[in-house]
Each structure stands twice: as structure tokens, then as C-alpha cells.
Design goal:
83% helix, mainly alpha, 399 residues, Growth Hormone, Chain: A, 17 helices
């Protein structure tokens, strides 16, 4: 057999859009001080642009995905990209906090719905058994944004005005729309249960367990990462230019971690991959907290941190799809949307913990909040892994 796994062009279209979305989501982290200075608000309030973005995404995504469940996938994706483009233009044209927040909310809702539906589309376009790798390719666009888009946008935003990166993202969104129009095949909506049936997924303990794993595990990084620029400049002692360049180190690690994480999950299974990466993340954040004033260790730790934090993303999403296929097969898109919400509830949780620490002058302690979240995430993961193992054995025993 010489057949090799070839990535469908439609998955690359998803990755192009994810690249634009990744810049839009994380660019605020790189230009946070510039936004705070220009709008005349505190750093902690500017940080809320990260948390409220995530909260809006978490609330809006499941509702919008539920409403779009019965429409063909390609037109839905094109509409969501268009809304994303408009949201970034609104952000770019903002001259006050309220207008910027409105633009971020519009962007967030389109962002979350795109990833929720895009993950199921990527899985449908992949060969059997390769869903996690296809999802990883889509998420690679998000992590590539961390390597190229966010550092470049940070340099531009800090040097020439924080609005410019948002204009650039709007242009990228237009290119993503074109790629989707050209490369994405026509796909009908998958059979879905009635709204009540889909909402019932929220009552399933395995679904709730998987959501908690994603919230805690992904959120573990964001107590510190939301404030990574002031941490690098005010605590570690890097210049703003070098801090921007160090985001390239973190971003490169997220790209490598995402692709490796997708392959690892496909090889050993998402529960094992998550357990090991959560353990590694906990240890990394402990070391980060201890060595946060030192420049050389920080460079190495940024790479390891990014590798683990985003290496878990394919496992989180593949885990939710596998869990939904077993316990709520009529609500796959909705379960995917819930997990995208969980990613962003995790960001919100991390940002809130980090902002509370920053407001009390304890920015150097923010990694410890992440340690606690990553350790707690192991509990529902262990329970769900045992539950899934028993469910797999039951049909075999009865047969």
C-alpha cells in the first residue's frame, strides 16, 4: 500500500481563515499597553478586551451554531468570514473603548462559530481515523498566526498605531473568503436532532466532563499569557522590540506543538496525549514562575510553554467529537460549538485570574494560577477516560 494521507484543499481554506482569526484574537495581547495608553484606560481594563472577547464567543457560538445547523456548510462559512471581516473593520475604526469592544464582540461570535463548524467540516474531509490530523492542520493556521501574524502585528501596532493590525486582518479575511469560495466543496448539513435534542447534550456528564477539561486545560496558560508583553518588559527586563520578537519564539512553538499534538493524539489516543501534556504544562509553569526574572531561561520556557499549551488543542477538539459521537451523535456540530466555547471560557477564566493578580500588583505570580488549573483538569480527564474505556468494553462483552 503506497497511499498517503493528502490534505484536502478545503482544509487548507479553513487554515487560511484560521490564520486571520488567530491574529485577530491574540493581537490585543501584543499591543495591550498601546491600546491602554491611547484610550486612556488601565492595563487591567485593557486586558478585559481579551476576556470579554472570549466570553462573547463562549456565549454566542453555541446559539449561532444551533441556528445554522440545517444550512449547507460552505455558504455558512462564507457568511461567517464576512461577519468576521466587518468586526475587524469596526475595531480598526474605533476611537474609544466601547466601540472597540463592540467590534471585538462581533468578531468573536463569527470566530467561534467558524471554528466550531470548521472542525466538523475538516473531520468530514479527512480519511477515516485522521480527523485529529485534519483538525490540527486547520488549527495550524491559528498557530501560524502566533509565529508570523501576532509578532509582526505587534511591531506594526506598537510602532505605527494599534489600529493598523486590525485593517491588515480585514484584508486577510477577504483573502480567506476567496480561498473558501474556491477550495471548499459543497457540503450539506449533517443530520441533526431538534434544538431540544441538541441542547440535551448539556445534560450529558461525559460532555460536561470534556468541556471542563478544555476550560481548565486551555485556560491554564492565559493567566500569564494575557500579560506576556508587560511580563517580558517590566519583570524579565526585555525591550518592547525584543518582547515582540520573543512572541515569535512562542508562536513557533505553538505551530510545532499543534501539528505534533495532532499526530500524537492520532497515535496514542487523545486521553493519553492530554494527560501527558497537562502534566508537562504544569511543570513548565512552575519553572516559569520560579525563573520569571531571568532572560535566558525565559526564552527556552516560552518555547516549551507554547509547545504544550497549543499542542493540546487538537486533542481537546478530537476528544469532544469522539465523546459526542458516542453519547450525543445527533448534536456533533453543537458539541463542537460547546467545546469552542470551552476554549474561550478557559481564556476568560485565565484572564480574570491574571487580571485580579495584576490589579493587586502580583503579575509575577500569574503562572501559579495556571499550575492550579492544569492540575485540576486531570480530574475530569481521568473520569472521562475510565468512562470511555468502559463504554468501549461493554459492546464487546455483550457480543
Amino acid at each position: 500500500m503506497t497511499n498517503q494521507y493528502r490534505t484536502h484543499a478545503g482544509i487548507w481554506a479553513l487554515a487560511v481563515t484560521a490564520f486571520a482569526i488567530g491574529i485577530a484574537e491574540f493581537i490585543v495581547v501584543g499591543i495591550l499597553p498601546a491600546i491602554a495608553d491611547h484610550l486612556g484606560i488601565s492595563l487591567a481594563r485593557a486586558g478585559s478586551l481579551v476576556g470579554l472577547y472570549a466570553m462573547s464567543l463562549a456565549i454566542g457560538t453555541p446559539l449561532l451554531v444551533l441556528g445554522l445547523a440545517r444550512f449547507p456548510r460552505k455558504p455558512v462559512l462564507l457568511v461567517l468570514i464576512s461577519v468576521f471581516l466587518v468586526g475587524n473593520l469596526l475595531s480598526a475604526l474605533s476611537d474609544n473603548y466601547a466601540l472597540l469592544l463592540a467590534g471585538r464582540i462581533v468578531t468573536a461570535v463569527a470566530h467561534g462559530s467558524f471554528f466550531a463548524i470548521g472542525a466538523t467540516v475538516a473531520a468530514r474531509l479527512a480519511p477515516t481515523g485522521q480527523a485529529s490530523r485534519a483538525i490540527a492542520v486547520m488549527f495550524a493556521g491559528l498557530t501560524l498566526a502566533m509565529v508570523i501574524g501576532v509578532p509582526l502585528g505587534t511591531l506594526i501596532g506598537n510602532g505605527f498605531g494599534w489600529q493598523l493590525p486590525f485593517f491588515a486582518v480585514a484584508l486577510l479575511a477577504a483573502l480567506a473568503w476567496l480561498a473558501t469560495a474556491l477550495w471548499m466543496p459543497s457540503l450539506p448539513a449533517q443530520p441533526a436532532g431538534h434544538a431540544v435534542t441538541q441542547l440535551a447534550a448539556l445534560l450529558q456528564p461525559p460532555i460536561l466532563a470534556m468541556l471542563s477539561i478544555t476550560v481548565l486545560g486551555f485556560g491554564a496558560s492565559f493567566a500569564a499569557f494575557t500579560f506576556i508583553t508587560p511580563i517580558l518588559t517590566d519583570i524579565t527586563g526585555f525591550s518592547i522590540r525584543n518582547a515582540s520578537l520573543l512572541l515569535v519564539v512562542f508562536g513557533a512553538a505553538t505551530l510545532v506543538g499543534n501539528l505534533a499534538g495532532g499526530r500524537w493524539a492520532a497515535s496514542v489516543g487523545w486521553p493519553v496525549a492530554l494527560r501527558r501534556m497537562l502534566t508537562g504544562l504544569s511543570l513548565t509553569l512552575v519553572v516559569l514562575a520560579l525563573f520569571i526574572p531571568y532572560r535566558a531561561p525565559m526564552v527556552v520556557l516560552l518555547f516549551v510553554w507554547g509547545l504544550l499549551a497549543f499542542g493540546m488543542s487538537p486533542s481537546f477538539q478530537a476528544g469532544m467529537l469522539a465523546t459526542a459521537e458516542r453519547w450525543t451523535p445527533g448534536a456533533l456540530d453543537f458539541a463542537s460549538a460547546l467545546n469552542i466555547s470551552a476554549f474561550n471560557l478557559g481564556i476568560t477564566l485565565g484572564e480574570m485570574l491574571g487580571s485580579a493578580m495584576v490589579a493587586r500588583g502580583s503579575m509575577a505570580l500569574t503562572p501559579w494560577a495556571g499550575v492550579g488549573l492544569a492540575l485540576v483538569a486531570q480530574l475530569p480527564l481521568a473520569w472521562l477516560a475510565r468512562r470511555s474505556f468502559r463504554a468501549k468494553r461493554a459492546p464487546a462483552a455483550s457480543g
